[in-house]
Structure formats: C-alpha cells, structure tokens
Amino acid sequence: MHIVDFVSGSLAGACGVALGYPLETVRVRIQTQKQFTGIWQCAVATFSKEGAHGFFKGMTIPISTISVTSAVVFATYRDCLRRLNQARGADRTAPNRKLDVFLSGLVAGTVQTSVLAPGDIVKVRLQCQTESKRGGPNMPKPKYRGPIHCLLSIIREEGVRGLYRGILPLILRDAPSFAMYFWTYSTCCELLTRSGKKSPDWSAVMLAGGLAGMVGWTVGTPMDVIKSRLQMDGIRGPRKYRGLIHCLTDTVRVEGVGVFYRSLGISVLRAFPVGVAVFATYEVVSGFLRPGPDSIELPWRLK
Fold this sequence. Notes:
By secondary structure, this protein is mostly helical. It has a single domain (3-296), classed as Mitochondrial carrier domain (Mitochondrial carrier fold), CATH 1.50.40. 68% of the residues lie in helices and 0% in strands. It is built from ten helices and no strands. The radius of gyration is 20 Å and the shape is globular. The two termini are 16 Å apart. Keywords: Membrane, Mitochondrion, Mitochondrion inner membrane, Repeat, Transmembrane, Transmembrane helix, Transport. Pfam families: Mito_carr. One of its GO terms (cellular component) is mitochondrial inner membrane. It is a multi-pass membrane protein.
C-alpha cells in the first residue's frame, strides 16, 4: 500500500465524517427507532430534547476509526488495481478496466470492515441513545457516558466479540456499496473528461464524487437497516433477533419491504456532499503529496 493513498484517504474520511455526521445520526435513528417517522420530525425531536449535541453523539471514535478505514479503503483499492493490471500485463499508462475497478472496490469494502466494525457499533449505540444528560432527576439517564465508556461497556457485557456484532451485514453492505462507489466515480470521471485532456475538471470530480456517494448508499441502505437493528438488539430489553436471516425475514413480515428504504432520502441527501468532500480531499492531498507526473493521478486511473 502506498503511503500517499493511506494519508490522503485518512484525511478524506475525516472530512466526510465531520460534514455528514448530523444527518448520519438522523438516518440511524430513523432506521432503528419507530418513534421517528421522518427526517424533519426526527431532527426536530432530537434538537428539542437533546440540543445540537444530540446530532454529534459518538462522533469522537468514528472520526478517528473512519479516518483509518477510509485510508484502508483507498490504499487497498489502488493496490488491487495495480495487481490486477500486472496480472493481465497491462501497460501502466492504460486506463483501468471497469471490471477491475468494480472488483477492487469490492475487495476494499470487505477489508475495511475489520477496522470499521468496533467504531461503528459504538457510533450506532450512542446515536440511538435518546436520553439526555440535561433531563431532570426523574428522567431516564443515558446508559453510556461517552464513546470510551460505551466501548468498555460492550467489552465488559458482551466480550470482544460484541464489538463485531452485525459484521456480516456490514460486509454485505460495504462490499457491493464500495464496488459501485468506485465504479460510478470512475465511469463519471471518464464521461466528464473533456476531449484531449488526461483528467476531468474539478467540477467534474466533485459531481462524480457526489453521484458515487448517492449510488453507493442506494445499494447499501437495505443491509444497513439490518446491521443497525442487530447492533441495537437487546439494548432496551431481551434480544429479538436470532441472526441476520431472522432479522431480515421478521423485518419484512412486520414492516414490509419499504422499511429498507425508509431512510434512503436522508442517506442520499447526506451522501452527495460527503462524496464530494471525500473525493475532492483525496485528489487535493494525493496531488500535493505525489510528485512528478503522478501528481495529477486520479483514483480510477493508473499513470
């Protein structure tokens, strides 16, 4: 893995988290708690009960872990592209095949879940903790005092294995999601590159990044619902689901197929600006750190 890809991906991930976290909190709450019926209702209820802080619960660990996972994603993605190109004996200046882009994204999405899972479950549990510290003496108190307390509580109550609860749906979400994420970005960049130019303009890069984010989350949203429900299962009472298949079938039976896309609107709303921020940051940082002719290199093409 090239250090430039790792550093660029890390900074890009941090920017994406900081920009999209408030909407991420609303999205997770809509997916896991029936008391929230829509984006606006959830946002208003969160603000009135918990204040602005309610939208940023659990952000400390994700902004650090997602920085690492984003670095792993970009570095793994580019490493896979290099290896696939070498395997078919392609010239280094040749554009990548779309199948190679798709497969590299698939591998990158799978690999990063091992790093992402512990921070993700902490994030989800803190985001779904609607009790406020500002409540009166007769009001229920939050179970977790913060990210570190939540992390240690999960280990104490469920063991280290508890940090990886929901990892199977996480893999099933991220593998195809990242495959489509990079494939969409690659395709859009190629289509938006003007004739005679080696790379697209910055406006095209940002548009491609935004569209890639929207497509990726459209693919990943159904399994994200299952993941979040498994991660929250048993927190407020006895466990309801025996596993992924039971959660999937029970959710469809009780709430219908439409529940998997109940949060799609906010997922897409959040995904576009986050996708813009992630790819624009990656391109700026990698272009600055990579000297010589490779300084204009884009993630979807090897020079």
